[in-house]
Sequence to fold (1008 residues):
Amino acid sequence: MDLKTLTEINAPAGHEQPIRRVLIEELRAKGFNPYIDRMGNVIVVKEGTGVAPRKRVMVSAHMDEVGLIVTGHAEGGFLKVTQAGGIDPRVLISKRVKVGDDNIPGVIGAVAIHLQSAADRARVMGYRDITVDIGANDKGEAERKAPIGTYISFDTPYVEYGDGYACGKAFDDRVGCWTILRLLEEELPCDLIAAFVSEEEVGCRGASGAAFSQEPDIGIVLEGTTCNDLGDIPEVAQVCKAGEGVAVSFMDGSSIANRDLFKKALEVGEKEGIAHQVKASVSGGNDGGVIQRAREGVPVVVLSVPCRYIHSPSTVVKLSDVEAQFELCRALLKTF
Amino acid sequence: MFELLKKVLSPVGPSGLEAPVAEVIREEIAAYVDTIEVDAMGNLIATKLGKAENPRKVMLSAHMDHIGYIVTGFEKEGFLRVTNVGGIGLVNSYNRHVVFPNGVHGVVVAQPVQGQPALKDLFVDIGAQDKDDAKKMVQLGDVCVYANDCFRLGENRVSAPAMDDRCACTLLVKLLQTVGETQDTIIAVFSVQEEVGCRGAKVASFAKAPVVGIALDVTAWGDTPGTTQPEIKLGEGIAVKVMDRASISNPALREELLACGEKAGVKTQREVLPFGGTDAGAMQTSRGGIPVCTISIPCRYVHSACEVIDMRDMDAGLKLLQTYFN
Amino acid sequence: MDIKKILSESTSTLGVSGQEECVAAYFAEQFKPYVDEVTVDSMFNVVAHKKGSGPKVMLCAHLDEIALMVNHIEDDGCVRFASVGGVDPRILPGSRVWVHGRNGKLFGTIGALPPHLMNAEDRANNYKMDKLHIDLGMSAEKVREQVRVGDLVTFNTPFTELANNQVAAKSLDDRSCIAIMLRAAERLQKMYCEADVYFVCSGQEEVGGRGAKTAAFAVEPDLAVVLDVSFALTPGCGPDVAKPLDAPIVTHGPFIQPKLNKRLIDCAKAHHVKLSQEVSGRSTGTDADDIVISRGGVPSVLISLPLKYMHTAVETISLDTLEECARLLAHFVSELDASWEDDLWI
Fold:
């Protein structure tokens, strides 16, 4: 299993079957006994090597990605769509997509620039304007091939480029999934609850059930996070920088990090010489919030790989940051 | 109660970093309760066992946290860029004195811009020479709050920045100190992170599984020039909440509390707040659901550096709650 | 079972979000003949349990209604109000209401400025909630004797029968869906039923799924079917957002368990129930949103009854569609067995 394979699986929020199948197969091949809970989360519990009572640490990453969903069909055989997870419709124009479980190729076009008035050009195209074209001859064919409720994913292959960067879709949060798969191969003192959770992109729904059922002592959330480090962004407004290591959050839209864990993560990073940075923004939300507030409360920290152009068909990560996420999480786990 | 209030107002305790407040409160209540614990989120939970054979578990919640600004960046000249923790108002913050838990002082300033300044236009001047100097004083993720400035206003009123919700913490401390033997078991939760979404009360009520929940909080006012709603007046009594955005009080419990006020001979006000929410919302929807209500202390200029309450309303609240438990 | 009678009685029974005692007592009584046990909990959820040995399924429709609440009494006797749940202030001018005071309900009307006195700007703008008032035809002194801050105000619109078996009333959102559950309960008495069925009439849906959240925690179901109303086609409410009045609606989207949904759609096909389909890309705006994430998770589906003019005092439905929803629900529940969870997620 590699990052390329993981990111190229199409599994928007609420339609995680494709990645669930791959993960179950991979985990079984590695000798684990994964199971699926009632939120569709894939869970593996690996006992630690320490003496009992051991800490039960839930390391979670979400399986789902942002995508589209078919809401209806227009005359001429076009698919009407809306978002499953937050996608700015402006990034969709002139892109290729894969439709449904059969991965039917489709495109999202736009009215030719020649035919646009000045007012048209100034107007932002929204989901009311956007249709997906799979080449259907008529509405009937479109309905048969992509009925209402069919999910659609970006069709952008994984490419490594530049100085150690990779471009692709769904790095948010297949990087975390990949890191967990690697962590499962490590000997750790604590019990590791590896949770590949569902539906983060539509409100952190899978993690809520996983944390309730698993009752962990500590939660570590592995994420991909925003990173606006290029272009016209003044340095103080930057969230984190690609290439400067795994980002540790003090607070985001959904949780305030447990101070002790936050400090510990930074100390471990310092001590082990693992590239890390503090995520310098209070933005977005992730599974940390619902895990922290499951049952009687759980100390939580979020470790993220900076992702440029997140939630777009062409997200960019620096592979050394993915490595740093793995190393910092491993080092942190060894302290429990 | 004023001296106690002053004491509880003094520690710096922004949302997520409430431990110093918990320390002050712990000392005040230790002699009056059976157990004290701090949970995974930092809630200070004191239990005072009831004398009934199978005492009801009644949870009272007052939040310790205070709105503030969190450091998100450093300008090269040493100024801090910040964002809000909880609903802190921009206009209320201009040129205000703030303080960090480690004692570093600062002034919140809005840089000149066209039109209204936004959050991104705020900076905090901590007197640093440059970026490196600033980084020695505070770290990314550190949080500052309005510096404590507690003073009497006229005969009965008191102004201070952290009145929301330390005045309710004070009320709860005072209740524990004075209530004596009760039939019900009182679970007094000094909760964390209310200002960012009643997060502490959520886990505390799950853990303690009470059968009744009463939040103690402040409420808005309608008795100053240009305001009429909510129909709440300072000094006109303790308010009993009918509804806000986060909870609708259980009608029977609400009437019971109002009746307790009457029995205690104190003035009460009925409160309908079209905005805001308290820990009652989190308690009500915990587990299988419980009846909840909020006892509100009328407070002018909520979420500013000068939050004003009337001590007579505090006394009314105390007597009402004493009556409820006796 | 006389569905019209139930709709007429229940929609005229007081049951505002958070204070649903009366309507809860009404529905608890209605369920009694069809189930083994009925309780009303502290959130005023009605939980009617029909015992079975199979999977534990929670059926849920909300019993609360949107309303207004007194928040200020002016010195001229005008009563000012806030909303409980999403009330559109544009529907209020000229409305008749009941103000539920300390000695019973008082007739009131919500005033509107006469057109003669309006200027062009007045006409171009909608009324705002805080500029409207209720006229009780009494002096402030008399009003204050009987009405207090926090008292409830509900619409005073009688149940109305329209052509083609359509009916209009306030609060058909979502009491018509409780009628669906009642009809399904009646049908299930004569059908094979292995499932352990909980009919839940939930409180406080209109202010955010609060009753369903706690009811789901308490009931701890294996799976859930949520019933709520959805938008029916009307002028200004076209096919992008609304569906025909004459067919039950199923919903696709991340909050709905896809395999369970397929089971529901197959069930409809097998019993010749015509369906419409809609998509919720994120939350469904119903109790399902909270039930799904109760405890470790509750796979759920949603059946919607199309309704015209939602959140007005003249919400309109088709009784024929209501019956179809009940037929579908009864068959779906009747056919539930241990196999429901097979390959649910793969």
About this structure: Chain B has two domains: 2-66+162-325, 68-146. The longest strand of chain B covers residues 212-219. The two ends of chain B are 20 Å apart (CA to CA). Residues 2-66+162-325 of chain B form a domain with the Aminopeptidase fold (CATH 3.40.630.10).
